[in-house]
Amino acid sequence: MVVQEFTVDLNKPLVFQVGHLGEAYEEWVHQPIVSKEGPRFFESDFWEYLTRNEWYVIPLIWLPVVAWFISSSIRLGHTIPQVVLMAAFGIFVWTLIEYTLHRFLFHIKTKSYWGNTLHYLIHGCHHKHPMDGLRLVFPPAATAVLLFPFWHVLKLMSTPSTTPALFGGGLLGYVMYDVTHYYLHHGQPTNEVPKNLKKYHLNHHFRIQNKGFGITSSFWDKAFGTLPTTKMSEQSR
């Protein structure tokens, strides 16, 4: 019996279609459609609305929260230099979380109906439509839900007075990640560092998608051996 290959209709809501691709999903999702007009995800206007976010909503919502958490450690008796170090460590830890999530969760291979569907919602949509400006940052409602387990895990690992600054630093790292990610796709950098970072990230999208998982830096790619090869090094082999 010949199984007919499923074809996604890009003119209809995508989320509940992609699961039918089965094993073909992996290849389909990594064939990007470069357009600033994003697809429709859901029939429901409510759920569709929750998937669309302007980039500036992220700092507007979360920077005051960051400030409150970091200042809490000062109110609990720590000096400003101590709190700055704690927040900086929180940012550093976030960069590892950023790398780990991107490499091991966002790029997990799926083939079941619900596996494909969930993966598309989490990250697959971004690879399929990398220039969709309204789906480049993480929805604040989803972030708020995920913050609760992170907060409680951190409380188990640190003291009551250091937890807020560490958590605030990690949250600041997340804000920096989301804003940087948007800029790498839609900004036009003139300085060398952001230019290289943009090239590095777009290389992940359009050339070597199983390497280059860092967004805000390539540090962890270097540490864990997932730094993509350059064209020059490939030619010299």
From TrEMBL:
Lipid metabolism as UniProt keyword: yes
Q: Which organism is it from?
A: Penstemon davidsonii
Cofactor section: Zn(2+)
Subcellular location as annotated: Endoplasmic reticulum membrane
Residues in Fatty acid hydroxylase domain copies: 88-226
- Where would you find the membrane-spanning parts of this chain? 55-74, 80-101, 136-154
Q: What is its main location?
A: endoplasmic reticulum
- What's the protein here called? Fatty acid hydroxylase domain-containing protein
Keywords of the record, alphabetical order, are: Endoplasmic reticulum, Fatty acid biosynthesis, Fatty acid metabolism, Lipid biosynthesis, Lipid metabolism, Membrane, Metal-binding, Oxidoreductase, Transmembrane, Transmembrane helix, Zinc
Q: Which family does it belong to?
A: Belongs to the sterol desaturase family.
InterPro entries, A to Z: Fatty_acid_hydroxylase, Scs7
Please give, as recorded in its UniProt entry, the membrane topology of this protein. Answer: Multi-pass membrane protein
